[in-house]
Amino acid sequence: MIEEIKWWIILGYYIYTVITAIGFNAYLKRKTGEGIMGSIDMNQIPRTLLWIFILGIIGTIIVFGYPLAYLAYPRILELGFPISILQNRYAEFFGGFILFSGLAIELAALLQLGTSLRFYLPDQETALITTGIYAVSRNPFYLGLYTTFFGMFFLLPSIVYGLGFIFFAANNHFRILLEEQFLIERFGKEYEEYCRKTGRYF
């Protein structure tokens, strides 16, 4: 019974993610003419740090692909070097709670961004949001995303997924540092003052 509930939680996560992405993309297209994806200048990434970007791609494939593969083939957990101490109903209930908490944080961050929402760097002018959930964290969406994937780790406890999560988080932290340079250039002292008042994650 627990395995069936876990399967439905993971399926629900994917349905929610797809609907949210399509919905926000359509909203932005209608309001700004620009989609949800911004751009990233690969020339900004030092060649000595390209390995972080490559690990990030691997991590992204794992954190999004591994649970999807589980839906089609639940025994894949056995092939990902499972962590047996976390394979119990308590860990799974905890993981489900953390996953849904992360989704709530993500949604709050996305709704507050409104037309300023972009993944990567925006091509158009956007507003600097510093109130609400953004008064608690400068990157609440990423915080929610990490919380969601941390919950998923407890639902699918394996070394493969854990490494994917670490790679994904390391790459995104590096990307956040690039975004901060962009925001300093765009908003100047206003953003610097915001950074002094509000932590990057907490």
Main sheet, how many strands, which sense, barrel? none
The number of distinct β-strands equals 0
What portion of residues belong to β-strands? under 5%
Average pLDDT metric: 89
Task: Classify the secondary structure makeup into a structural class.
Answer: mainly alpha
CA radius of gyration: 18 Å
Topology as a string of helices (H) and strands (E): HHHHHHH
Straight-line distance between termini: 37 Å
Shape: globular
| Helix share bin | 55-70%
Number of domains as seen in the coordinates: 1
If helices are DSSP runs of H or I spanning 4 or more residues, what is the number of helices?
A: 7
Contiguous low-pLDDT stretches (5 residues minimum) are: none
Can you give keywords for this protein?
202 residues; globular
